[in-house]
């Protein structure tokens, strides 16, 4: 397959430098084409309009091939240019049009032409967007709760769904023509005198149109590569371009025949899904499993060498990083660092319990480590029999300090899926989606997490203020008293449970409004086609086409909640070291003055803190969080009774960077946290409060009911670079991971390997640290692109040693 002797390491670095040097901007091509199609076809069903718009976009958008590319495909007219998706929301674009380049983080640089084009596009979409329609479905009280910031679902309304991986096994096995045959077969059997079948007819018609549009898109790259080959005098590059053209010609219709073709088809699917929809966390599943048969065959028959296979992967990672997204500033604060969360999962165990790690697992790990980009978001499925050599290689990549790989635990995830009713074979095929959340690729619906964000500390503050929301001044759920009137801690816990039960149900009400708007107005046709059993049922994912349907919304501030509970219980009600009146005054004044700061220090230093293996506070965290779980698990999604298995909610802590903006709308709290400062992220301890080392953190987190938090138990740990430099410490890390996962039923962990001094220098001299990557939450980002608040949050996290 490959006889070219080019230096692939230099080429990979050259392509990476192009990506890092590209100034983030926007691309208006998709927006203009979608607007034109919608204008000209307003009378047609939404599903047909979306298919027409996608096909037109794939046919007319600019395409290009970089000199270094052997994997091709772009989603915008320039590197790192973010397409605009006006059908979701436009008000924020008009509001922020002149401010994109002035953002404190995640800035975008628009030309005057961009601005002029966007103004014209937005004029058409005013009043027609998904955001407007989603708000219209909310009752007045739910709208008020959403606008108060206690519950936020803005990203769902301005960005669509995502949070999914399609069935790449089936894509490779059938090829695009195979999907067309499936569609034609089911479509030909419809009796359209039946209203449900008429709806299916429109769906099948749209799937066919979209698949054919994708085929033409791939053929456009065939033609471009052929044209470029004819115009180059470099024989090596000419050969590469002819090979690119041949690959595109084959996979535009047929199933792939080798590793190179298979990887290219996977990338095209991944790319087009993100042209179709603005939803992020579109992930690639267990790439080391579905690509391995092609890799193994080609290596064994000598048509592929490891050097070129490595470069194919490195090229693909650069292509993934080139995909960019622009969000409203309010949404950006929840997703700092422009993440796309395109997760690749490797490792895990087979159905018989044996280790699934293979040669491709090692190569994917190596390639991600060499490129040190923020995409893909690499996850490793850990289990008790995982290859020790592979784990050693994982620690070497972790040592590079860019936050990858993260680890999910088969020993807890698989049993929790089985308990939900997932079939055994499917449960063993789960993968990480987006950050650290999990689903069965190609069989799971949208939003395994990422539904409404619930600010637990706003709920807690309402609980100790007779139900009154301290920020908006509104009472959405009348309480049973306040801190001033409570006579025991049991009354505090009872008040909490009443409030969190109300707000758990409120998240479902808001989700229902959002889901209905998405189902009616934002149908993702290709994503549905590549997800079982949408074609069989003739339904989109949102209408109930997927085999399984389980969702979660992140809950933010778990550690602050437990620490606040512990402070009240111990210092106010049991030991009476602080009076209720003293604490109320300190909170109301943000711990102002000498007395206020004295009380704050008492709260910080004398109340038990989550993350130190202290049952006193750890059990309070568990009890408080379980009150939310007990309620949310009673509710169903909008797909209930329409086909999928499950259609239920579960808890999740994958809060991305939401801890920063969530904290910005919470006043001072009883854990000693100052007003409007970040909350704890994920299920990690509050910054600086986990003082007994990483093992104590593991033990605290493991006390959570992790088998019920299937939306993700996100744990960040920060180590100094010296902590794992030696082989002895690498072995120690592996041993700790094994104990955490195998004995304590830990769910997840990921690492930041960076010291405080480096981060402070990078904040002060960003131009000197352009390629510094850090783990923000369940994803990594370039540190210098983050806002100062997000940077400070990462700097403040506790640094551990092993």
Task: State the main characteristics.
six-stranded mixed sheet, alpha/beta, 51% helix, 802 residues, 33 helices, three-stranded mixed sheet, disordered N terminus
Note down, in words, how this protein is organized.
The chain has 802 residues and is of the alpha/beta class. The protein has a domain at 8-140. It is 51% helix and 8% strand. It is built from 33 helices and 19 strands. Strands 6-7-8-16-15-19 form a 6-stranded mixed β-sheet. A hairpin with a 3-residue loop joins β9 (431-433) and β10. α21 (456-463) crosses α22 (489-521) and α22 (489-521) crosses α28. The longest helix is centred in the N-terminal third of the chain and has 36 residues, at 195-230. It is globular and about 80 Å long. It starts with 7 loop residues before the first helix and ends with a strand.
List strands and helices in order, with pairings.
Blueprint: H1 8-21, E1 25-27, H2 29-40, H3 46-60, E2 81-83, H4 91-96, H5 112-125, H6 130-137, H7 140-148, E3 151-152, H8 154-159, E4 164-165, H9 168-188, H10 195-230, H11 235-251, H12 259-276, E5 282-283, H13 287-290, H14 292-300, H15 306-322, H16 329-332, E6 343-347, H17 359-371, E7 377-382, H18 388-398, E8 406-409, H19 410-420, H20 424-427, E9 431-433, E10 437-439, E11 453-455, H21 456-463, H22 489-521, H23 525-529, H24 534-537, E12 548-551, E13 555-556, H25 558-574, H26 580-588, H27 593-606, H28 615-632, E14 645-649, H29 659-663, H30 694-702, E15 716-719, H31 727-743, E16 748-753, H32 756-764, E17 773-775, E18 780-782, H33 788-796, E19 799-800
Parallel strand pairs: 1-2, 4-5, 6-7, 7-8, 11-13, 12-14, 15-16, 15-19
Antiparallel strand pairs: 3-11, 8-16, 9-10, 17-18
Helix pairs in contact: 1-15, 2-3, 2-5, 3-10, 6-22, 9-10, 10-11, 11-12, 12-15, 15-17, 17-18, 18-31, 21-22, 22-28, 25-28, 26-27, 32-33
């Amino acid at each position: 397959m490959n006889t070219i002797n080019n230096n692939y390491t230099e080429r990979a670095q050259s392509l990476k430098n192009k990506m890092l040097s590209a100034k983030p901007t926007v691309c208006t091509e998709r927006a203009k084409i979608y607007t034109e199609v919608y204008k000209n076809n307003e009378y047609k069903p939404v599903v047909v309009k979306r298919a027409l718009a996608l096909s037109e976009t794939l046919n007319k958008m600019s395409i290009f091939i970089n000199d270094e590319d052997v994997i091709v495909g772009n989603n915008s007219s320039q590197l790192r240019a973010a397409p605009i998706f006006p059908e979701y929301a436009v008000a924020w674009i008009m509001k922020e049009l002149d401010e994109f380049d002035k953002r404190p983080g995640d800035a975008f640089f628009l030309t005057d032409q961009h601005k002029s084009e966007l103004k014209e596009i937005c004029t058409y979409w005013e009043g027609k967007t998904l955001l407007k329609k989603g708000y219209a479905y909310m009752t007045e009280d739910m709208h008020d709760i959403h606008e108060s910031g206690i519950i936020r679902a803005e990203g769902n309304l301005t960005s669509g769904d995502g949070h999914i991986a399609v069935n790449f096994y089936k894509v490779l096995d059938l090829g695009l023509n195979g999907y067309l045959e499936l569609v034609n077969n089911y479509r030909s059997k419809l009796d359209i005198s039946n209203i449900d079948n008429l709806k299916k007819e429109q769906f099948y018609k749209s799937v066919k149109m979209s698949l054919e549009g994708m085929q033409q898109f791939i053929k456009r790259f065939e033609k471009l590569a052929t044209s470029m080959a004819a115009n180059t005098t470099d024989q090596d590059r000419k050969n590469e371009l002819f090979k690119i053209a041949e690959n595109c010609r084959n996979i535009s219709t047929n199933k792939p025949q080798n590793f190179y073709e298979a990887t290219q088809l996977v990338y095209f699917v991944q790319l087009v899904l993100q042209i179709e929809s603005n939803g992020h966390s579109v992930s690639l599943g267990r790439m080391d499993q579905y690509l391995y048969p092609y890799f193994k065959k080609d290596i064994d028959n000598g048509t592929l060498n490891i050097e070129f296979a490595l470069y194919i992967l490195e090229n693909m990672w650069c292509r993934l990083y080139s995909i960019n997204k622009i969000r409203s500033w309010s949404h950006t604060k929840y997703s700092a660092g422009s993440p796309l969360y395109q997760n690749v999962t490797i490792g895990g165990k087979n159905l018989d319990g044996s280790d699934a790690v293979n040669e491709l697992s090692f190569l994917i790990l190596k390639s991600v480590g060499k490129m040190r980009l923020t995409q893909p978001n690499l996850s490793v499925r850990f289990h008790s029999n995982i290859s020790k050599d592979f784990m050693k290689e994982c620690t070497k990549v972790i040592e590079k300090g860019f936050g990858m790989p993260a680890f999910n635990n088969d020993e807890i995830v698989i049993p929790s899926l089985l308990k939900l009713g997932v079939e055994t074979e499917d449960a063993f095929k789960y993968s990480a989606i987006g950050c650290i959340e999990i689903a069965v690729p190609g069989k799971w619906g949208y939003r395994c997490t990422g539904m409404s964000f619930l600010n637990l500390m706003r709920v807690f503050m309402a609980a100790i203020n007779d139900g009154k929301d301290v920020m908006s001044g509104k009472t959405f759920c009348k309480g049973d008293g306040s801190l001033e009137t409570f006579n025991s801690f049991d009354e505090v816990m009872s008040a909490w449970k009443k409030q969190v039960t109300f707000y758990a149900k409120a998240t479902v009400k808001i989700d229902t409004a959002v889901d209905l708007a998405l189902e009616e107005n934002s149908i993702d046709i290709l994503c549905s086609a590549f997800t079982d059993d949408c074609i069989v049922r003739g339904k989109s994912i949102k209408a109930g086409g997927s085999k399984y349907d389980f969702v979660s919304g992140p809950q933010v501030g778990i550690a602050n909640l437990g620490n606040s509970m512990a402070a009240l219980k111990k210092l106010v009600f049991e030991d009476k070291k602080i009076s209720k009146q003293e604490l109320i005054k300190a909170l109301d004044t943000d711990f102002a003055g000498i007395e206020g700061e004295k009380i704050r220090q008492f709260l910080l230093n004398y109340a038990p803190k989550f993350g130190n293996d202290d049952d006193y506070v750890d059990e309070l965290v568990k009890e408080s969080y379980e009150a939310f779980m007990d309620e949310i698990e009673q509710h169903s999604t909008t797909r209930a009774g329409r086909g999928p298995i499950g259609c239920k909610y579960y808890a999740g802590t994958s809060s991305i960077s939401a801890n920063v903006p969530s904290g910005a709308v919470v006043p001072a709290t009883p854990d000693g946290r100052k007003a409007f400062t970040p909350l704890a992220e994920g299920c990690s301890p509050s910054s600086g409060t986990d003082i007994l080392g990483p093992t104590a953190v593991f033990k605290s987190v493991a006390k959570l009911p992790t088998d019920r938090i299937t939306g993700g138990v996100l744990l960040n740990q920060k180590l100094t670079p010296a902590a794992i430099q030696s082989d002895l410490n690498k072995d120690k890390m592996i041993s700790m991971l094994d104990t955490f996962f195998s004995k304590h039923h830990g769910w997840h962990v990921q690492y930041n390997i960076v010291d405080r001094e480096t981060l402070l220098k990078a904040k002060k001299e960003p131009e000197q640290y352009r390629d510094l990557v850090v783990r923000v939450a369940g994803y990594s980002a370039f540190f210098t692109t983050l806002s100062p608040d997000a940077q400070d949050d990462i700097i403040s996290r506790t640094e551990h040693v092993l």
